[in-house]
Amino acid sequence: MTDIEIARQTPLAPISQIAEKLGIPSEAMEHYGRYIAKVDEHLIDEDQMRQHRLILVTSISPTKAGIGKTTVSIGLALGLCRMGLGATVALREPSLGPCFGIKGGAAGGGHAQVLPMEKINLHFTGDFHAVTSAHNMIAALLDNYLYQHRAEGPVLSEIYWKRVLDVNDRALRNVTIGQLGEGIERATGFDITPASELMAILCLATSLDDLRRRIGNILLGITTDGRPFTVADLGVTGAITALLLDAIRPNLVQTTEQTPALVHGGPFANIAHGCSTVLATRLALTLSPYVVTEAGFGADLGAEKFFDIKCRKAHLQPALTVLVATTQGLKMHGGVDITQIRTPQPEGLVAGFRNMDRHIRNLQRFGQTVVVAINRYADDTDEELQLISRHCDELGVGSAINNAYAEGGEGALPLARLVADTISRQPSQPLRFTYDDDDPILTKIEKVARNIYGATSVTLSPEAQQQLADINSRFGAQSAVSRYPVCIAKTQYSFTADARRYGCPEDFDLPIRQLIVNAGAEMIVAVAGKMMRMPGLPLHPQAECIDVADGQIVGLS
After folding, report:
1. 536 vs 192, 422, 541, CA distance in Å?
2. Cα–Cα nearest to 14, from 36, 47, 29
3. What string of DSSP letters covers 279-348?
């Protein structure tokens, strides 16, 4: 059966019953139909949070064979609940771009899904639309400001704010607006909504007041006298906050086994920081003894940003990290062609261990205790699964086979037992970050590139060099901006900036093309290589498979 068929045959409990499992009072919920609700973030309790355990799920470098990290995250929560330990999974919201582009749905798979999957994958509670609308409202208000003040001469000498759309559309990467006298003509472009600074702000904000403060600080451009121009200067901070008033509250749904799930926020880890909201994580930690969350793509992207950005700023301390690996992904990192990865290839599998090993070392460098989840696929052989297990034993790292896709919580019990037992015996050390707040911006980038990616050097393009000089001159080497963490936008398929270099490359340079100040999100985005913040569609997008038959959506899997 397809994911959507399994989802339709799974009985759903009214969302009020799911809330009761977490002790959420009815007055703290706003219902979006029978099976979805937003939850009041004021339920967050710092004392309760400190008594509970946060588990991160990340992965080896992903390949086009897939990894199944969301399925493992949901499955682990199901397994912990079957053990009677009480767990909630906290995930990001899917983007329409990938849903209709390459991967289809992003709500888990098989018997380890969050439901109702069609609504979660499509419009859900409108959070993505709210971010898109708020972002483009700023753009419209900024262009109106420029138009209305055109007689006074150029008000801004540089304009940074682009527009966003939650669709993969390469044709919008570079556009010209204001033509034929309809505004001030200038070149600009579109990013995808998960790359919006407002999405990052939504995910990193700790309260409504913090959301407002961050929105006001968004850097829109530079005035002719060299002064930063912000949303607060535009005078519309309150209006943009109003557009995100509902979006800030976490969304409560359920899994295929009627356990609680909070799905909130949706940045991509290759072009943004790739983690669900701080508010949803804190709420889950308040309400549940164990919280399973995931960070996007491989550990070099999502996990690094989870630790160095989200945990640093939100003062979170994960108890353990789960690294997801698959036989097919390891074979591709070992040089096996994608057409051969479903057949036994032990030599290629072993060659791919170097990718997994680097991720394990990186996670341990953060002070994390690591276990490996071997996510089982239907074509896997017992011999190859045992090869991975034995290799983990040699490293002194626990491992377990996860079969949640086929068996739900029952198939995740070995992993859940391993996780719970490891946490009780070997708690993680306090987080050790990759760089210090006081490190110069370039030093922060270099430390990530060398210590996490394995690069030998970092090269700034002439554009990035000028941008770094401008940042230092405009804000000062000792300013708050200089203390921001860095968020490197890089291909997910490789430790390098070249998507074709699978495995564990050595002795390479990391080229940085562009530096972007996200003064509201309070981070510096460094764009590596040819990475685009507006993806394109493949030759045959997933949209060709999606349809409505007999009043029901099909092909969304």
Report:
1. 10, 42, 10
2. 36
3. HHHHHHHHH-SEEEEEBSSSIIIIIHHIIIIIIHHHT---SEEEEEE-HHHHHHHTT--GGGTTS--HHH
Q: Are strands 228-230 and 219-223 parallel, antiparallel or unpaired?
A: antiparallel
Give dist(CA 190, CA 161) in Å, integer: 10
Question: Rounded to whole angstroms, how far apart are CA atoms 244 and 264?
Answer: 13
Whether the CB-CB separation of 299 and 363 falls below 8 Å is answered with yes
**Strand, helix or coil for residue 34:** coil
pTM: 0.96
Output the pLDDT for position 450: 98
Tokens 């992965």 correspond to 59
Counting as low any pLDDT under 50, the low residues of the chain are: none
Q: What is the three-class DSSP state of 430?
A: coil
Among 414, 430, 536, 480, CA closest to 168: 536
- pLDDT at residue number 445: 98
Beta strands in 209-343 (DSSP E): 219-223, 228-230, 251-255, 260-263, 290-294, 320-325
User: Which residues does 251 contact at the CB level (< 8 Å), separation at least 6?
Assistant: 32, 36, 37, 38, 39, 93, 124, 125, 127, 262, 263, 264, 280
As a whole number of angstroms, the distance between CA 82 and CA 412 comes to 9
SS3 324: strand
Cα gap 491→527, rounded to integer Å: 10
In this predicted structure, what is the pLDDT of residue 3? 85
- Residue type for position 279: L
Extract the tokens encoding 367: 């002070």
CA trace torsion 96, 97, 103, 107 (10° rounding): -30
Residue 339 is given by DSSP the state G
Q: How far apart are the two ends of the chain, measured CA to CA in Å?
A: 11
Residue 482 makes CB contacts below 8 A (sequence gap 6+) with 440, 441, 471, 472, 475, 476
Residue type, 336: V
Predicted pLDDT of residue 428: 84
Amino acid at 8: R
| Cβ contacts of 450 within 8 Å, gap of 6 or more | 456
Query: Taken in order 121, 123, 124, 130, is the CA torsion positive or negative?
Result: positive
Q: Is 202 left (phi over 0), alpha (psi -120 to 50) or beta?
A: alpha
Q: Which residue type, as a one-letter code, is found at position 408?
A: G
Element (H, E) at 133: helix 127-148
Instruction: Classify 181 in phi/psi space as left (phi over 0), alpha (psi -120 to 50) or beta.
Output: left
Q: Report the interhelical angle of 69-82 vs 409-425 (nearest 10°).
A: 80
State the number of CA atoms in the 13 A half-sphere of 499 facing the CB. 11
Of the candidates 510, 370, 523, the one whose C-alpha atom is nearest the C-alpha of residue 435 is: 523
| CA 126 to each of CA 129, 217, 314: distance values in angstroms, whole numbers, following the listed order | 5, 24, 25
Indicate the SS3 state at residue 536.
coil
Torsion angles phi and psi, residue 61, rounded to 5: -60, 125
Structure tokens at 441: 């911006």
* 75-122 confidence digits (pLDDT tens): 999 999 999 999 999 999 999 999 999 866 789 999 999 999 999 999
